[in-house]
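Subgroup meeting minutes
Present: P.N., E.W., G.H.
Scribe: E.W.

1. P.N. recapped why we're keeping a running log of single-chain structure predictions: easier to compare across weeks, and new members can see raw inputs and outputs side by side.
2. G.H. added today's entry (146 aa).
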Amino acid sequence: CPPHPQSRCTRFRFAPLEEHQALGRLKVLADAEGCDCADGGLEACIQLGEGDMRKCINVLQSTHMAFGKVNPANVYMVTGAPMPEDVEAILNSLLNDEFGPAFALVWEKMSGKGLALQDILTEVAKIVSQIEPKNPLSKAQLIASC
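Output recorded in log:
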């Protein structure tokens, strides 16, 4: 078999941008495009963009085109991602309520807001992974209870 030709293209991999770096560029872009941005709107775009400037710009553009106003509620609505306050309420319920009420709250958020269970669980897992309990065993118990 003849050897496969080698590509002369080089792959570049970039680390995610820091929040302040992405925010600066997104502000410049939003001003240049005349986007109506409310407090927290650009920050929500950055949060959902996860340090990828292309994603941040896509979220900004989609929100601006769909709603005209870039605010946190519209950003989360256009992406279909669960709002942070919904995730916190669900986590609080999972930790403090019996199974029935916790399940009812998750079901209410899923059906009422059109959220996917996978998205809710992903966001809950992010919060749980950031919790630093005094006892490492309690973190394992927390993960097992979710």
